[in-house]
Design brief:
GMP Synthetase, Chain A, domain 3; alpha/beta; 17 helices; Rossmann fold; five-stranded mixed β-sheet; globular
Length: 560
Amino acid sequence: MSNDFPWFNHYPEGVPHELNPEAYPSLIELLDEGFEKYAGQPAFTFMDKTHTYRQIKDHAYAFAAYLQSLGLKTGDKIAIQMPNCTQYPVALFGSILAGLVVVNTNPLYTPREMKHQFSDSEAKAIVIVANFAFNLEKVIGDTQIKHVIVTGMGDMLGFPKKQIVNFVVKTVKKMVPAYHLPGSVSFSEALSRGKAATYTKPDARINDLVLIQYTGGTTGVSKGAELTHRNLIANMEGISLWFQPALKYDIPRKILGALPFYHIFALTVNVFAMMKLGFHNILIPNPRDQKALLGDLKKHRIFIFPGLNTLFNALLNNEEFRALDFSTLKITVSGGMALQAAVAERWYEVTGCRISEGYGLSETSPVLSVNPVSGGQQLGTIGLPFPSTIMKILKDDGQWGAPDEIGEICAHGPQVMNGYYKRPEETANVFYTDPADGKKYFKTGDIGLMQPDGFFKIVDRKKDMILVSGFNVYPNEIEEVISQCPGVLEVACVGVKDDKSTEAVKIFVVKKDPNLTEEAIRAYAKENLTAYKRPRYVEFRDDLPKTNVGKILRRELKES
């Protein structure tokens, strides 16, 4: 790769310009290396039960043998649908070891959404938490799923805690609606059978499909990004290189597993990267349960905190969180949505650790760029492109943008997907081939710019841009400004139809101060925003609709 790119001048010390996306023949070898290297170290802690890397390996290989005993072949699809619990990595690693393609699925999906993903991906098997098995019952007849493994939340907690937790979840809290799935097998039974079965290492190759990661589907039909062993290995290599400068501290590498693993950000940073770096994941099944989350944060002094703006903001407004000991917190990484300056500044004041905002998509495995984690972060940017990654700005006229020119962010690198599963036309629409050198660039749909120093900024999502009397208004900017207005807890901005100016700016505000008025917000906007950017409409809400990951659903607000 050419050394002409300005971002290389700001790379953390020791981080090379290029990485090797073929450092392993497949993810199987990466997993085996981690299992062996960190065998006796803690890997996952869930509800105070800790499993070592060796124990996870034994369970994963047993699960792989069980899947093979069912007659599932290399390349067959298996859906995994559960929150963060120890069964998740066992099922994930076991499926990969068996040579299967994992379909990562949100457990809170409706039957309609489940049916679409399972049918579209042609999944033949599924591992699902019992809480949501009743939804599977409604649609399984319309899918190709033949093998169902059902797990209770406490299945890997050991006797008697397993029995107690599963009883409380099902009988006391009534969180497991009745379901009827003939022929289904419990997760515990699958592991038991797998221990008696024979495992055969599959012929997995570097460019084989290993993960179908569906896009959020908040703007249309959910599409499955085809990710290969090579794509994910590239991101693992990049993450491990990027984190190295901050790994000099001789303290336990506990990483908070609060973001759901069915989301590509946490799947990559928490679950796969740990196999390279020996992280100890503290699993949080429901990050919105602040009482439980704070209980775990008091027990475990976290080293790495992956999160997103809404999670950081919620915790910063909790007195118990602000009183915690943050002396071991050395890395905080943000993704998934724009990080607001007010939140980032408060986080640093409270924890003493600066947030490193990054950027990526399901289609890019996910990391494309990130700020340094050991100093040199630039607030308001998404950082520097990863090693072996080229990012450029494509202007409306089809030309590459110069520094500070605005356009669509495009990326070329080994982490970029092959395409969308069974959707060649949509795949073709999101790639641009540079006529100068023939390189294919993924068009992200995000509007941004590159600073002269090589740091990138996102201006907004292309589809979220608001057109006011011919002027482009970017919701991220409005939210960034209004979030700093005294008394505002959360804010979301959308465009609404307007006969005079095409669209008008509308904001939805959750109050931090109950005495906050619309007049105060308008006065703040007048002081900080030019006239066409100021909100025409202000609506107060008790809360804002969010995805399970915590992203604010602008589309839902726009349609309300």
